[in-house]
Design a protein that fits this description.
- With 156 residues, this protein is α+β, with helices and mostly antiparallel strands.
- Helices cover 21% and strands 12% of the residues.
- The chain is built from 7 helices and 5 strands.
- The strands form 2 sheets. It has a 3-stranded mixed β-sheet with strand order 1-2-5, with no helix packed on it.
């Protein structure tokens, strides 16, 4: 069992149902992350259709066991192209976020799943429910980009 690096104490009750994303406190915004690691999977986007395919090829900074970025606070120094998700850009990037992502769900007006740590009370439920990437990713430095298509997975 892993400790939850996200502080989820002292938050407004059911804030994700009551408060618009743009009005969330920074701590509430961070607490929406379920810790699944799916957003750190490399994706392929069809330039003609805009369709996004997820691969099991993970960002080089993703820890395959914790499903967390190994350099979260300074990730943009290593990967300037990494998306810094925030209320201002969610409308532009929600389409490529996993379908189970709390940020996407709240943006689309949908409820969180019962395995989400804000509902279950523990960060481990995302892994117990099989909703994280724990144990099944391949680091991007092991797979040439031209072979990512060989690692496409079903929609998340």
């Amino acid at each position: 069992m892993s400790d939850d690096p996200i502080k989820r104490d002292g938050l407004r009750d059911l804030f994700w149902e009551k408060v618009p994303l743009k009005n969330l406190a920074p701590k509430e915004w961070e607490a929406l992350c379920d810790g699944c690691g799916k957003c750190c999977l490399n994706k392929l986007e069809d330039p003609d259709t805009g369709e996004v395919a997820f691969t099991r090829v993970a960002c080089r900074l993703l820890d395959n066991e914790t499903c967390r970025c190994g350099q979260y606070d300074i990730r943009l120094q290593f990967l300037p192209e990494c998306v810094h998700l925030n209320p201002q850009n969610i409308s532009k990037v929600a389409y490529w976020m996993p379908s189970t992502c709390a940020y996407r769900l709240v943006y689309e007006g949908k409820p969180l799943y019962d395995w989400h740590p804000l509902i279950s009370g523990t960060a481990e439920t995302v892994h117990d429910a099989g909703q994280s990437v724990r144990g099944w990713t391949v680091p991007e430095f092991e797979v040439p980009e031209e072979e990512w298509e060989d690692h496409i997975i079903e929609d998340l």
